[in-house]
Amino acid sequence: MPPEPAPTGEEAHLRALEALYDAAPINGLFRSTLSLPEAGQSIIRFTVQPDSFHAAGAAHGTLYFKMLDDAAFYAANSLVSDRFLLTTAFNLHFTKPMRSGDARAEGRWVSGRRRVFVAEARIVDADGEECARGTGTFMRSHIALSGLDGYRAG
């Protein structure tokens, strides 16, 4: 059976963004995996561990913010194949404490296609209950995706 051809176009861009996410040093502290099922959507799977808890025994807000920002960011950047986006604002709403266990952050592009993009994300725990949601604003930077270590298109 011949090997599958390398992805091209949008598919190559989505796989390259997944590789970029995997290569980010911060993800050594926050173990997680990104998948981009299609442009404008993202899913980050992670496990809440006790080492991310605050003093009252639930996940600290840094974990919520990191996963929501990343999910919204990658949903938006999946629509931009030449430049790295930057977060310019992010609103976060906590709805339920996260305890130990599997969780996922789901991102979705909402609006914008030129300079400014709006995307939202939510975190869902293993029981399917929403733990937080957020909305971010992202803008194009002068940073070329092709120049970033980890971004491997095609």
UniProtKB/TrEMBL annotation:
GO terms for MF: acyl-CoA hydrolase activity
Matching entries from InterPro entries are given as: HotDog_dom_sf (IPR029069), PAAI_dom (IPR003736), Thioestr_dom (IPR006683)
Q: Would you indicate the residue range of the signal peptide?
A: none
User: Is Iron a UniProt keyword of this protein?
Assistant: no
Q: Which residues form the Thioesterase domain?
A: 57-132
UniProt keyword annotations, A-Z: Hydrolase
Question: At the top level of its lineage, which domain of life is listed?
Answer: Bacteria
The answer to whether the entry has keyword Hydrolase is yes
Instruction: Please give the name of this protein.
Output: PaaI family thioesterase
